[in-house]
Design goal:
Strand order of the largest sheet: 2-5-6-9-7-10-11-12
Shape: globular
Helix content: 10-25%
Number of helices: 3
Length: about 210
């Protein structure tokens, strides 16, 4: 996780826990961490018979290749993108995901973000996500230059942007809304359907309130 600017802000350079990243990576097989630094990059390519060569596949301000210093400007064509940016520029990253996946040639992008359904960027770009995965429990993040988790008090979502014939979801309940339990052994999903969670946890059918 990092801000995509050349002037680095340590407050935005929070790492992703392996416990959160690994099940997502098992599912999507990411090829590029588009908002990272060398120290917190999660996408690693391993070469050699004994895995002695490891290369971080990322875009970030400390990258030695100038073209990869800014993931917002980099072309994600054919990449399976993992995106855990600093929340300060969440709107720009959500827009980038839409432009690369929906209108470009990136097959999938998964963006970790805080839930901000009242903000302009959320209303404009989150509805393009094929899935909204509500992360439970709230994941913590790893501060820059530290191996200690930082307590997170925000609700977090994984926005899954995928190639689809349907480019935009006009109303939220057309999307796949998933209660995504990433803790413990394995990943449990509770799918939203017909105004309730199919595992029996009831929530109101908000669609009734829409004209």
């Amino acid at each position: 996780m990092t801000e995509s600017v050349f002037a680095r802000d340590p407050r935005q350079e929070w790492g992703t826990l392996d416990a959160l990243f690994n099940p997502l990576n098992d599912e999507f097989r990411f090829t590029l961490d588009v908002a990272a630094t060398m120290s917190n990059c999660k996408v690693i390519t391993i070469y050699g018979e004994e895995g002695e060569e490891r290369y971080a596949q990322y875009c970030g301000p400390d990258h030695v290749i100038v073209g990869r210093k800014d993931g917002l400007k980099y072309d994600w064509t054919d990449e399976k993108a993992f995106c855990n940016p600093g929340f300060g520029k969440a709107g720009l990253w959500a827009e980038k995901c839409v432009r690369e996946v929906v209108y470009g040639d990136c097959p999938v992008a998964v963006m970790i973000s805080h839930i901000s359904h009242g903000s302009e960027w959320w209303i404009k770009w989150a509805r393009y996500a094929a899935e909204l995965r509500l992360l439970f429990p709230r994941p913590n993040f790893v501060p820059a230059d530290s191996i200690i988790e930082s307590k997170n008090d925000r609700d977090i979502v994984a926005l899954v942007f995928k190639k689809s014939d349907k480019r935009i979801y006009e109303v939220p309940w057309q999307q796949k809304l998933v209660y995504y339990d990433w803790s413990g052994k394995g990943v449990k999903e509770r799918i939203w359907k017909d105004g309730k969670w199919i595992n029996g946890i009831w929530v109101p059918d908000w669609s009734r309130d829409v004209n």
